[in-house]
Design goal:
The chain is an alpha/beta fold. The chain folds into 2 domains: 162 residues, 3-Layer(aba) Sandwich (Rossmann fold); 167 residues, Dihydrodipicolinate Reductase, domain 2 (2-Layer Sandwich), CATH 3.30.360.10. Helix content is 31%, strand content 23%. Strands 16-15-14-13-7-12-11-8-17 form a 9-stranded mixed β-sheet, with helices on one face. It has a 6-stranded parallel β-sheet with strand order 3-2-1-4-5-6, sandwiched between helices. A two-stranded antiparallel sheet has the order 9-10.
Length: 380
């Protein structure tokens, strides 16, 4: 059988998250051929290029390279729209970190532009392609919990300015970077993957203490004030198209981290921990079995470790095989609309009717657990 030509990739935005993307795209997925990376800060792209043996490039060089087919956009949320639009206008497919834009108008424009150009948009997070959530999908589809009737998701992560550097603070305090956007996407993509699209949403969202101060005496901006321009507390009620109800609570106004996702069915419950991870344990509770104690279940799928970039690889296989990619723009837009719909519901006091629709992405085939053949699960 003839070998498949790898898809050439350029990465724009060589910040913190780019490291694991580049590691996996250069070392794990044979379908990807990473040409180079760029960043507005020259030192960052130079360091990443040296680290992974790729070219240091400018944004314009990536966009004008006729061989590069996919642009991976790992810039800050405020730049997602601008960079993705430029890539689409340059005739490139785009895989973007969550979420796709900071306004619904920008997101709609990107979706329309991709359709007009006949190009693909892929949206992180791609964690639902990992071992844990693919296994959970298999158990649900096999009827192990009966009919899903409720989902409960909770993420609490402190975004307080405690450290001396606080490198993430500028991202999570601005539009598109607050916890409903920064972390909510992991839970929404997981639930859409498991349960399908969402019909209606309502809830509450606000920015608690929109003006705060740097409290650490060792911080260079000690006692200076700063503004949060994004919600840092949200509780959402979700009605899925298949009839399941759900809730999502996301807040960054306390300390520690509490991630949890549970799917309740008529015959049992699946207990998952953190959709931000690829291989956390899964527990199954079956009605009437062993006094209804949770039982850890084995994984049926591969990619149990941090596999960021698997969504890019799946897009590349989709391009070569002319089939849909799983981390679709439709999924990313749907999740983005949920977060914005909750805020709209909070303002109006009315239930928000979703305007977008997304089908559950196709599950990965089971059985590819480890080794060099693992990528074969994406070639379908």
């Amino acid at each position: 059988m003839a070998s498949v030509k790898p898809v050439k990739v350029g990465l724009i935005g060589a910040g913190a998250i780019s490291g694991i993307y580049l590691q996996n795209m250069t070392q794990i997925f044979s379908i990807l051929d990473v040409v180079g990376c760029s960043d507005l800060i020259d030192e960052r792209s130079r360091n990443r290029a040296q680290e992974f043996g790729i070219r240091q490039m400018t944004n314009d060089e990536i966009l004008s390279d006729p061989e590069i087919e996919i642009v991976v956009n790992t810039t800050y949320p405020l730049s997602h729209y601008e960079v993705s639009k430029a890539a689409l206008l340059a005739g490139k497919h785009v895989h973007c970190e969550k979420m796709m834009a900071t306004t619904m108008g920008e997101a709609r424009e990107l979706m329309a532009l991709a359709k007009e150009k006949g190009l693909r948009i892929g949206m992180a997070p791609d964690t639902f392609l990992g071992a844990a959530l693919q296994t959970a999908r298999k158990y649900i589809d096999a009827g192990m919990i009966g009919t899903p009737i409720n989902a409960c998701a909770l993420v609490m992560r402190g975004y307080k300015p405690m450290g001396e550097q606080d490198g993430r603070l500028s991202m999570v305090m601005t539009a598109g970077g607050g916890i409903p956007y920064d972390m909510g996407g992991y839970y929404l993509h997981a639930m859409i993957h498991l349960l399908g699209g969402i019909r209606r949403v309502s809830g509450f969202a606000k920015t608690r203490n929109p003006v705060e101060v740097f409290a650490n005496p060792r911080h260079p901006r000690y006692k200076e004030g700063f503004d949060f321009s994004t919600p840092n507390m949200m509780t959402a009620a979700l009605e899925f198209e298949q009839g399941c109800y759900g809730t999502l609570t996301a807040m960054s106004e306390s300390f520690g981290e509490t991630p949890r996702l549970e799917i309740y069915g008529t015959e049992g419950t699946l207990v998952l921990s953190d959709p931000n991870n690829y291989g956390d344990p899964i527990y199954l509770i079956r009605n009437g079995y062993q006094q209804m104690k949770p039982c850890e279940v084995p994984f049926t799928h591969g990619y149990p470790v941090n596999s960021r970039g698997i969504g890019v690889a799946d897009m590349a296989w989709g391009i070569r095989n002319d089939r849909p990619h799983r981390c679709s723009g439709e999924m990313g837009f749907h999740a983005f609309e949920v977060v914005n719909g909750v805020q709209e519901s909070c303002k109006t006091g009315r239930v928000y009717e979703m305007t977008s629709h997304v089908d559950r992405p196709a599950p990965l085939p089971a059985g590819h657990v480890a080794g060099t053949a693992a990528e074969a699960c994406l070639d379908n």
